[in-house]
């Protein structure tokens, strides 16, 4: 019998304590290897530092990395609780293509029925985006923005070749900005969705272990 490949670790990175809490509230078994949920802190610099430091640990050598948490939707018609699966992440430091986007969409549709899943470029920012700036980012082709995903994935691939992805839950959108009444309700909706997504992440992770044809 040929030896079985070593399990591929999975690093799930989020910025905020409430995001980490939501993910841990939904934790179940079923990943394709060891799983670490990392709270990086807010902003691209914090994400870069945390991810680079953690991936220096030999235990996480070759780990798959998935950035997640909340984001701002850029396109009209997006709603709190919608899901965004990045085809790529972008920021001034570079663009990183994501792996397994189609599988993530399929699994999220199955895992979180009734929720809209958007796919497209996810852009990075070092601040909360509102108003006209949101419209300007939409003209670049991006469908959503957050402060950590792009830095997380760029840091991940900079430390070695590995599969990466980003899945975000919309917490505000053009018609539902954070400064408006209803923000709390939107936040609760996004929290509930984030609490349910881990099974889809685990399916993506397990798929990385399958032989390539």
Can you walk me through this structure?
The model has no long low-confidence stretch (mean pLDDT 87). The chain is globular, with a radius of gyration of 16 Å. The chain has seven helices and eight strands. It has helices spanning 17-25, 44-55, 101-111, 131-138, 149-158, 183-194, 198-207; strands spanning 10-14, 35-39, 64-73, 83-91, 94-97, 117-124, 144-146, 164-172. The two termini are 20 Å apart. The protein has a five-stranded mixed beta barrel with strand order 3-7-6-4-8, surrounded by four helices. Helix 2 packs parallel to helix 5 and helix 3 runs antiparallel to helix 7 (198-207). It is an alpha/beta fold and 213 residues long. Helices cover 34% and strands 25% of the residues. The longest helix is centred in the N-terminal third of the chain and has 12 residues, at 44-55.
């Amino acid at each position: 019998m040929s030896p079985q490949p070593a399990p591929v670790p999975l690093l799930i990175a989020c910025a905020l304590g409430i995001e980490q809490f939501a993910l841990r509230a939904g934790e179940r078994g079923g990943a394709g290897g060891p799983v670490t949920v990392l709270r990086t802190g807010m902003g691209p610099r914090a994400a870069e530092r945390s991810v680079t430091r953690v991936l220096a640990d030999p235990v996480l050598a070759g780990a798959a990395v998935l950035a997640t948490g909340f984001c701002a939707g850029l396109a009209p018609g997006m709603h709190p609780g919608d899901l965004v699966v990045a085809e790529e992440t972008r920021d001034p430091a570079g663009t990183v293509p994501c792996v397994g986007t189609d599988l993530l969409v399929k699994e999220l549709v199955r895992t979180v029925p009734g929720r809209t899943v958007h796919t497209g470029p996810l852009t990075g920012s070092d601040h909360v985006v509102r108003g006209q700036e949101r419209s300007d980012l939409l003209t670049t082709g991006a469908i959503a923005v957050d402060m950590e995903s792009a830095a997380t994935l760029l840091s991940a691939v900079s430390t070695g070749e590995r599969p990466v992805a980003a899945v975000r839950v919309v917490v505000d959108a053009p018609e539902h900005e954070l400064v408006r009444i209803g923000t709390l309700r939107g936040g609760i909706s996004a929290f509930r969705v984030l609490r349910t997504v881990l099974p889809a992440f685990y399916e993506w992770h397990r798929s990385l272990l399958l032989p390539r044809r």
